[in-house]
Design brief:
Number of helices of chain B: 6
CATH architecture of the largest domain in chain A: Up-down Bundle
CATH superfamily of the largest domain in chain A: Butyryl-CoA Dehydrogenase, subunit A, domain 3
Order of helices and strands of chain A: HHHHHHHEEEEEEEEHEEHHHHHHHHHHH
Oligomer: heterodimer
Shape of chain B: globular
Structural class of chain A: alpha+beta
Shape of chain A: globular
Largest sheet of chain A: 8 strands, mixed
CATH class of chain B: Alpha Beta
Order of helices and strands of chain B: EEEHEHEHEHEEEEHEH
Number of domains of chain A: 4
Radius of gyration of chain B: 22 Å
CATH architecture of chain B: 3-Layer(aba) Sandwich
Number of strands of chain B: 11
Number of helices of chain A: 19
CATH topology of chain B: Rossmann fold
Chain lengths: 597, 248
């Protein structure tokens, strides 16, 4: 077990970042990783660079035997067994090691989706919810890559509304008989087992393990997709599909716990993987813009290209800070229970569930960062970026799915603000108290001088943002009451502010640590963070003001905006200067410099 | 059978090399270090022999503490023991002397190494170890068979293959094509953490040569585009080759 990276034993409450002064919560950063964990990342990098990337083109021609071969090879070196407990022949590494591996695996879009569906949503339901017999039967083979897995939740009529599934399961003697069609099933073309959701007697949402050779199971033809063309996506058709009674996973009627619990992990992984993908994009974009000349100068000497390069690297730095902070919380919470506990699966699921707000933030922020980076990479390549001969075109298409699956970014935005409000109502998070504190502070807002350290100004900015977010959100609660959750635009604005605050705070704390410890890349870390906070602060400011305008007007709005203005004593620095400095470092280094492994 | 594999830590081939302030060494800042690829073939061959003939594989590297990464990686791949000879030596004869002195009398039947360490490209250490130990050698080998106290090695020569047979102990240096090195498994990495790396003082007698300078190749001058119709371009090219490059 690689639990040596545990950053703290203090257990943090999910969502509490918004209500806690910057620097008071523990935070794991990639600079805290031990050499031991990094070796797992290097092993994954060797595999992906040696085996997967050289076959990029063949994979994307939907060469399924090749994908199967690569997954089995990944299994041979242990890449499929990272999160499987030792008792079932897994490696039982912590989630930090898993994230290091995931970042590498994400460098080929299609393969990363096949890998993620197999080891994540396909395997983890059995890890967390399986009976002893089910775990013994499936997990060792899944760990070795002898069995490959898939997850079947969505149907033609139920996507975001997953509980609206029409597939049924009826008990007939010693067997379940399932009927229905599952849609967009990743790995359907070759998976050996499917964690499949169906309603028992058409009512009770439940999960079942279905094997590929079970009678009555078939798959449709391959979908023609916009991107990730090398991943298998088919319908899973169940026509009087008969399976033994003991293939029920978890309890009857408790399928939602599996579906949503596993999605929390899936969301985290997806968003975190996006940053891995982004690292490959910046690599070839830096290379191309250094080689391509126009007006007798390399592209990377032009200000507007430097702007893009600097913003790409900044998003990667901030994304890493968000991902590692979140995985630190999850690992700490998971380490509170051991797999030898009789109800370990449930406890661990609960531990992950605690950070559902953060997991959704990782998903939305990461997928949107990669979309932006992929898009600007096309732009940097100009006409060549539009040609399938060059790498940006494919990534541009491949990354599009990330904003759709594992819960659309819209659903996740509703969850971010919705979960915070729910926890505040239950009294689990002291949002009301923070609201009262902020109201009192309007006449005496936090001053810049109250903050210390090398990034004091940025810390002040983050604290001001929290107060603006709190004032605007508090007003929304006050005006709309229970109806707030139905006002999706207002909810999304709240979520956007929360995401930016989490992102800014994570980056600021990471940069501060690097500066204080004299890290080799501390200076560029400060520049990344300053650039990000300069811009994100104004986004939060704008969202706070406009949220107020969405819920009130006239005198009420004037009053609310005056309150927000009390927390607006934050002056930006020159983004152009910061970008110029960042870009020159990137060009000199020829890559994103803050290497983790 | 006891096999020794000598491993060298070298800068990653993709690292942008800078010359250090002393003008005769590489600036180590931001350099990523790897196992020299030819040594990887040597190590893989040893592990395959271990699997087929129950050999014991010891890996040795001469260098500073950072070379432990190379040794740990070798342990993860399947080596049984690892030894770091702590030394600053950089001259091939000094390195070979230190390695030979350490290996002498330890009963190794086979000493494997890459045919050269990339970057330095001296291709000297392996043959020198054989000479210093006064044992057989075969270099730049693409195929190796080990018999009962004997070896049979194939090396590619101009237009054909040379086959060398000899008695063990021997030094064999590996060439690309000898095998396809495996990936470290995560289990192997975990297992390697439990093994210790033995550290030995590898101080060597001063070598016979020393590096006195290191310079980057001059930047390539920019190309020139010749204007005009093909006939004019050809004429311009001809005069440039004749009058400027003076190649005829």
């Amino acid at each position: 077990m690689a639990a040596e990276n545990a950053s703290t034993t203090e257990i943090v409450q999910g969502g509490s970042f918004l209500l806690t002064p910057i620097g008071q919560l523990p935070q794991f950063t990639p600079e805290d990783l031990s050499d031991d964990s990094k070796e797992f990342g290097r092993a994954a990098r060797d595999f992906i660079e040696g085996e997967v990337l050289p076959r990029d083109e063949a994979i994307d021609k939907l060469d399924l035997p090749l994908t199967i071969e690569l997954l089995r090879k990944a299994g041979e070196i242990g890449l499929l067994s990272i999160e499987i407990p030792e008792a079932y022949e897994g490696l039982e590494l912590d989630k930090k090691s898993s994230l290091l591996v995931l970042e590498e695996m994400s460098k080929q879009g299609s393969f990363s989706v096949s890998y993620g569906a197999c080891t994540g949503i396909g395997t983890l339901p059995i890890v967390y919810f399986g009976t002893e017999a089910q775990k013994k039967n499936y997990l060792p083979k899944l760990a070795a890559g002898e069995l490959l897995a898939a997850y079947a939740l969505t149907e033609a009529g139920s996507g975001s509304d997953a509980m609206g599934a029409k597939t049924t399961a009826v008990l007939d003697g010693d067997s379940w008989v399932l009927n229905g069609t599952k849609m967009w099933i990743t790995n359907a073309g070759f998976a050996d087992i499917f964690c499949t959701f169906a309603k028992v007697d058409g009512q009770h949402f439940s999960c079942f393990i279905i094997e590929k050779d079970d009678p009555g199971l078939s798959t449709g033809s391959e979908e023609h997709k916009l991107g990730i063309k090398g991943s298998s996506t088919r319908t899973l058709i169940l026509e009087n599909c008969r399976i033994p009674k003991d293939r029920l996973l978890g309890e009857i009627g408790k399928g939602h716990k599996i579906a949503f619990g596993i999605l929390n992990i899936g969301r985290f992984k997806l968003g975190a993987g996006c940053i891995g993908g982004a690292k490959r994009v910046i690599e070839y974009t830096l290379k191309y813009t250094s080689e391509r000349h126009q007006f007798n100068k390399p592209l990377n000497s032009f200000g507007l290209i430097q702007q893009k390069l600097a913003d790409m690297a900044t998003k990667i730095f901030v994304g890493e800070a968000i991902n590692w902070r979140t995985i630190g919380y999850i690992d700490d919470a998971l380490s509170q229970s051991s797999w030898s506990d009789p109800d370990a699966g449930a406890k661990k699921m609960q531990a992950i569930d605690e950070f559902s707000i953060e997991a959704s933030i990782v998903k939305v922020w990461g997928s949107e960062a990669l979309s932006w980076i992929a898009d600007e990479s096309v732009q940097c390549f100009g006409g060549y970026g539009f040609s399938a001969e060059y790498p940006p075109e494919k990534v541009y298409r491949d990354c599009r799915i990330n904003r759709i699956f594992e819960g659309t970014n819209e659903i996740n935005r509703l969850l971010i603000a919705g979960t915070l409000l729910k926890r505040a109502m239950k009294g689990e998070l002291p949002m009301m108290q923070f609201g009262q504190q902020v109201a009192k502070e309007i006449s005496n807002p936090p001053k810049a001088a109250a903050f210390t350290g090398p990034v004091a100004r940025l810390k002040h900015g983050v604290e001001l943002s929290k107060r603006q977010c709190m004032l605007a959100s508090g007003l929304a609660v006050q005006v709309l009451g229970q109806k707030l959750v139905d006002n999706q635009e207002v909810m999304a604005r709240m979520s956007n502010m929360m995401m930016e605050i989490y992102a800014m705070e994570s980056a600021v704390v990471r940069a501060e640590r690097m500066l204080e410890s004299g890290h080799r890349w501390a200076e560029i870390a400060r520049d990344f963070t300053e650039l990000y906070v300069n811009e994100a602060w104004h986004r939060v400011h704008g969202d706070a003001r406009m949220l107020c305008a969405d819920v009130t007007d006239g005198e009420g709005l004037r009053h609310a905006l005056a309150g927000i203005k009390a927390f607006a004593e934050f002056h930006p620095t020159s983004c152009a200067r910061l970008r110029g400095r960042i870009a020159s470092q990137l060009i000199q280094k020829g890559g994103y410099p803050v290497e983790i492994i | 059978m006891k096999i020794l594999v000598a491993l060298k830590q070298v800068p990653d081939t993709e690292t942008r090399i800078k010359v250090a302030a002393d003008g005769k060494s590489i600036d180590p800042a931001d350099v990523k270090w790897i196992t020299s690829p030819y040594d990887e073939y040597a190590l893989e061959e040893a592990i395959r022999l271990k699997e087929s003939k129950a050999a014991e594989v010891t890996v040795v590297s001469l260098g500073s503490d950072s070379a432990k990464d190379v040794l740990r990686n070798a342990l993860a791949l399947g080596a049984d023991n690892a030894v770091l000879l702590k030394s600053e030596a950089s001259d091939p004869l000094a390195i070979a002397s230190a390695l030979a002195a350490w290996a002498k009398g330890k009963g190794f039947d086979l000493i494997l190494a890459g045919n050269k360490g990339i970057g330095g490209d001296n291709a000297s250490v392996g043959p020198m170890i054989a000479e210093l130990l006064d044992i057989a050698q075969a270099n730049v080998v693409v195929k190796l068979e080990i018999g009962d106290g004997t070896f049979r090695a194939e090396r590619e020569i101009e237009g054909g293959t040379e086959v060398i047979e000899g008695k063990l102990p021997a030094v064999i240096t590996a060439q690309k094509g000898l095998n396809e090195p495996r990936y470290a498994s995560l289990k192997g990495i975990m297992g390697a953490k439990k093994k210790t790396i033995e550290e030995v003082d590898g101080a060597a007698p001063s070598g016979s040569t020393s590096v006195v300078g290191m310079v980057m190749p001059p930047a390539r001058p920019e190309g020139r585009k010749l204007d005009g119709e093909p006939a004019q371009q050809a004429a311009a090219l001809l005069s440039a080759l004749k009058d400027e490059a003076k190649i005829f």
